[in-house]
Amino acid sequence: MNRKFEVVMNYALEKGYQVQPNILELCEVINIDEIKNVIQKIINKKKQSDCIITKKDFDEYINDKIIVQHDVLFDPTSQIASDEGMHGYYSLFKDRFTKLKKTISKRSEISKIYTISEISNSKNNTMIYVCGLLLKRDSEKKFTRLLIDDLTDSLEILVFEEDVKNIANMLLLDQFAVFKIQVNINKNIVCKDIILPDIPKHKHNRSRTNACAAFLSDLHIGSKYFMEKEINNFISWLSSDNNIAKKIRFIVISGDLIDGIGIYPDQKDELDLDSIDKQLYKAVSILKKIPKHIKIFIIPGNHDPGRRALPQPAIQKKHKYFQNCENIFLLGNPSLISLNNVKILAYHGQSIDDVVKTTPGMHYNKPTAVMKLLLRSRHLSPIYGSRTPIAPESHDMLIINEIPDIFITGHVHIIDYDSYRGILLINSGTWQKQTPFQSSVGITPTPGVVMIIDLKTFTIYQNNF
Ligand code: D5M
Ligand code: FE
Ligand code: ZN
Predict the structure, then answer these.
(1) Backbone phi, then psi, for 317, in 5-degree steps?
(2) Which residues hold their Cβ within 5 A of ligand 3, which is an ion?
(3) Does residue 376 line the site of ligand 1, with CB under 6 A?
(4) Which one of 35, 132, 289, 338 is separated from 101 by 20 to 30 angstroms, measured CA to CA?
(5) Pairing mode, strands 406-409 and 342-346
(6) Whose CA is closest to atom 5 on ligand 1?
(7) Could you read off the pLDDT of 385-430 as tens digits, one per residue?
(8) d(CA 363, CA 360)
């Protein structure tokens, strides 16, 4: 039996009442104290002869109340234990390969998957499946050449057909895929199809009540370009009479809370606050102005304290400034949280840089297009050895195992949203004005805009502060 339901049932029994089993559903979204409270109110109103508490009794009390319930479903912080050197990376890639192969093997269209070492025995022209991580991709005029490896060997595959070439050219290095291949008479391996792990069509979860979540990232507190006035406007608005503001119960900050120290050359010339301590102190003093009924979840980005390599542990709460901040939850990057039953995958988005750099058609202005590729590869940061450092963990914690309802990133400082197979994709922009560096590389940020989602209706609001 559901533990929460058991607690609620016993509470009612002690008072001489029985609860109907369909109240189980409520137990999943409302906290126990709140349910006990409502049960007491129901009992006070009931006739003595009626000792059954039904779901209908509850509706009167919780219909227009905003439920606030959260769960942390995955946080890498306590699991981080990098193995050193090559051995660690071997375990990491082996884990990525094995887990994604297991996921994809369940697909009905794929019959047996052969290992690369078994291919030499296969007869000419038979069609078989192999799988592997992509080591190399060269696009020639007439064909695309792929080099893949599995746990047994590596293999060169040629792609001639236009539609398959389109998939091949969008593959990310080190991503996992299944290849339908044929050995031709010249002993060349020709690729007839590429199957990505991808996301099955997803029906997203909803909150029972109209609780809203606001998505922020890249505040860069401590930078000369941090927009303090605008963020204070947002925070004042949270306590206003505005109908949307009144419904906000959650804020998710997807990294780069502070600007950090020594993150890029000559950063000190662009800092307002010259130590991590001062920056964090300022960050907390700003966050403390947020009304306490709003829960704030923060993951780190590449500017925040802690290690740079993914997955990143949570910013430590040991700083004295975080005292009396019970509504602030510091989590790792990436993390999966459930807000009123809606699953949110929060990731800073460092790998967007690598995908934009290596994949045709990808651009900083459209981060959700990159997010779709990441979902299709079922991995948040497949490309190894480019700009995004990845730690040699024995388990690959960047695999997208559980399917989220909302996938949220930051990092590129450009607000964007879209959906993919029922998942809402959001890039939450920034609270930092355009920096000289961004201007030199032609990145035009969209600062001071907050994305708000109604977790019941999935209505999207964009408010410009
Ligand atoms: O990154 C803010 C944005 O600037 C993001 O789109 C990446 C881009 N960026 C940051 N550093 C570089 C370098 N060195 N080359 C190219 N693009 C870069 P943030 O994480 O806030 O610094
Ligand atoms: Fe940033
Ligand atoms: Zn960043």
Answers:
(1) -90, 5
(2) 256, 301-302, 411
(3) no
(4) 338
(5) parallel
(6) 412
(7) 999 999 999 899 999 999 999 999 999 999 999 999 999 999 999 9
(8) 9
